[in-house]
Amino acid sequence: xxxxxxxxxxxxxxxxxxxxxxxxxxxxxxxxxxxxxxxxxxxxxxxxxxxxxxxxxxxxxxxxxxxxxxxxxxxxxxxxxx
Amino acid sequence: xxxxxxxxxxxxxxxxxxxxxxxxxxxxxxxxxxxxxxxxxxxxxxxxxxxxxxxxxxxxxxxxxxxxxxxxxxxxxxxxxxxxxxxxxxxxxxxxxxxxxxxxxxxxxxxxxxxxxxxxxxxxxxxxxxxxxxxxxxxxxxxxxxxxxxxxxxxxxxxxxxxxxxxxxxxxxxxxxxxxxxxxxxxxxxxxxxxxxxxxxxxxxxxxxxxxxxxxxxxxxxxxxxxxxxxxxxxxxxxxxxxx
Lengths: 82, 244
What we know:
The structure holds two protein chains of two kinds. Chain A is mainly alpha-helical. Chain A has helices spanning 2-20, 41-55, 61-64, 70-81. Chain A has a single domain, classed as Non-ribosomal Peptide Synthetase Peptidyl Carrier Protein, Chain A, CATH 1.10.1200. The longest helix of chain A is centred in the first third of the chain and has 19 residues, at 2-20. Chain B has a single domain (4-238), classed as NAD(P)-binding Rossmann-like Domain (Rossmann fold). In chain B, helix 4 links the parallel strand 4 (83-86) and strand 5 (132-137). Chain B is built from nine helices and seven strands. The model of chain B has no long low-confidence stretch (mean pLDDT 96). Chain A binds chain B through residues 40, 42, 46, 49, and chain B through 124, 127, 169-170, 172-173.
């Protein structure tokens, strides 16, 4: 389980680096996606679309509103998957 | 290599003139057509005569799967689309009271949904590249309304709302989105009108002549280029002053 979480964190960081044109080492587990990584509303839309593709999920805009950090995304995805 | 443009409804009329204008400016142009294959192939050859590669892609813009296929064909051949020109459009005139549900839906499907599908299919790559141009061909009747054109004018008015919203959403990525509202342009779509109707229309045009497709093409070429980069969310009327 822990191993799976760390793999997912790495995957989410890769997606964030790609979408936000950042280097991987600029992104921490606790980075706030909007505040620290500078994602704007369009970045958030692209992020959600990439997460949907990567993890084969359907995500409503509202349900991810409260998610702020890299770790938070992973927790959110795990909860979605049940 | 020239930038990549996708012009829907490019086998004839205004779309053909737009494709030619862009090819002359050095764009690689992919045109879409629904049924006029012979005409589309002829346009493709004409585009190639300007020394540019060209594509002619069959598909219905009202069908999102067709749109996805056409866009991936362009991406496969050349790369992501830099300039989208939503030009494909249909009309079926009838007085409002005689207008059929099916006709309204068909017109909205092509003129509005088609533009939506195409814009969505290309926008993600434009966002990534931080450069893009989306040019929507509307009509002056979308601004003024016109007797017998409830569905057509409504579909063209809808384009203005789409244009402004996309302009706002995409401007942060250096993508401009504009609409062009042509008036009476001499094409197949307008040649079906009787002489008396044409004369009546002419009487309402301050410049006392009909517009030529090439004039719309030149305007699209301007909006597609780098130099128009500070114009977004606008509707540019090209109608000889008819709507004044």
